[in-house]
Amino acid sequence: MARRAAAKPAASTVETPAGAPGTPAAAAVPGRRKGARRTTPSPETLAALGPERMIDLILGETARNPAFKKIVSAALAALQGPEAVAAIVDRRLAALEGARGYIDWQKRRAFTADLDATVSVVLDALRPLDAGAALDRLVRFLAGADAVLNRVDDSLGITQGVYERAAEAAVEIAGSLPAAEAARFALGLVPRIAAEPDGAFGVVLTDLIPRLGAASLAELDAALAGAEVPEAAGRAPEWQGRYRRSRLIRIRQDLADRRGDADAFIALEHEAAPGRPDRVAVAERLLGAGRAAEALDWLRRPAPKARVTTRADLIAGVPDPDVPDRARIVAEIRALEALGRREEAQALRWGRFAETLDREMLRDYLAKLPDFEDDAALERAFALAATHPQPYRALGFLVGWPHLPGAARLVRARRASWEGERYAVLAPAAEALEEAFPEEAAHLYRCLIDDILARGRAHAYGHAARYLAQLDALGRRLAPGRLEPEQAAYREALRRAHGRKTGFWSLVAGA
């Protein structure tokens, strides 16, 4: 209450524009609602408060907000020079490095605000005075990321976001340094990355590579190639060391991309995944180098024999052989187009569409056809979708294209086969069909409701109540005399079968 009362005189001081003493602001500005006040903070409105009032506001906020107090203290320290600001940051970093206590969810917000204020001090107070000192503090801050995140309840990733901000800032500062200094900074990261390949410094170096001078790339690649990866302590499985080395190789591949050296990338790919190189990644580099024939050869090589995917494979990023090979098809089409083999490229597009009902593949196919042939091809595509062995994929395609008459026919043709548990397809399809095909939409809504109630999915009762309301609206608005009697009978059947599900019926009444 006291704070609100203190603010009133300040608000009144900004009602009179400068240069017009005693004239209300509403009268000075045509169209402004009478009595409106300029209360949005801006340089002009804050200047009108005067220095003493601003000082009161700042002191009040520093008493309530420790993070804001830290920022104000750093701004005052900046008047003394970069050493004074660096001392404030160093004290906080030392406290973080020595802390061991667990930060639970109740303390997480204040702790994260404090971390964010530390980064703000480095960027807003220290960097303008000494960019090198600011970069050193960001490196020290990022070096403690794992220790901090391991003792914080950060299920939402909010604290992690502060470290991501610091990493982005480190890249931006390092990238703005003279070329020789940026190169030295990048080289200094190599031992840290070798020791902890999954840490923040691997991301920093990867993002910094596009900003480095071309002359420094070879030296950095040599440093990464010669980096010694520490052996895992104790009885750690052998794959951990292999994984660490593979992370260094992936950074070297980024360097190869920067140099435009497709052969170096391929050699490193063989080293990273012996016997199982990523054929699409290799082909993309060859295509970029104008070597389409070699790219096509890579793409058409027999895939390695499928084997059981191990935990090491998942961690190391080895491609799962069961993942659909759309990327390979797209790269193969690019190679064929580059070689002038357009009919083969079209055949691949149609084959991919026929198998998966890939909308974008069909659009590309139609775009490449001669004039006046696309209409017939599109009808052929719709006919193929109507008989596709995967009805949910077919319904999703027809709704998404959109071809609603075909979607409605499919709903009718396979009326008995729709299962409400496939709500990700049925719910948007029902909504899309409401206007033009209310009977088909109603059928899908009933499938969704029946599944939720039959399985007793209480967490989805709200959706079921909404679907029932949609059914009522369909009967009244779009199909009076046809859907309304049917809907009344359906509601009665729901009452008989699920009358005891009071949670659902209370939501229906509320709706």
Structure write-up:
Helices cover 70% and strands 0% of the residues. The protein is mainly alpha-helical and 511 residues long. The protein has 3 domains: 2-30 and 39-56, no CATH class; 66-229 and 238-308, no CATH class; 414-511.
Would you tell me the overall average pLDDT?
87
Q: Main β-sheet: number of strands, strand sense, barrel status?
A: none
Radius of gyration: 32 Å
Number of strands: 0
Order of helices and strands: HHHHHHHHHHHHHHHHHHHHHHHHHHHHH
Termini separation: 40 Å
- Count of DSSP helices? 29
Uncertain segments of ≥5 residues (pLDDT<50)?
Answer: 1-36, 314-324
Number of domains: 3
- The secondary structure category is mainly alpha
Helical content (DSSP H or I, runs of 4+): 55-70%
Strand content: under 5%
Shape: extended
Task: Offer a few descriptive terms.
mainly alpha, extended, disordered N terminus, single chain, 3 domains, 29 helices, 511 residues, DUF6880, 70% helix
Summarize the structure.
70% of the residues lie in helices and 0% in strands. It has helices at 2-13, 25-28, 43-47, 51-64, 66-78, 82-98, 105-126, 131-143, 145-149, 158-175, 179-195, 200-208, 217-226, 238-259, 262-272, 279-288, 292-299, 311-316, 326-338, 342-356, 359-367, 374-386, 391-400, 404-413, 423-433, 438-454, 461-477, 483-498, 502-510.
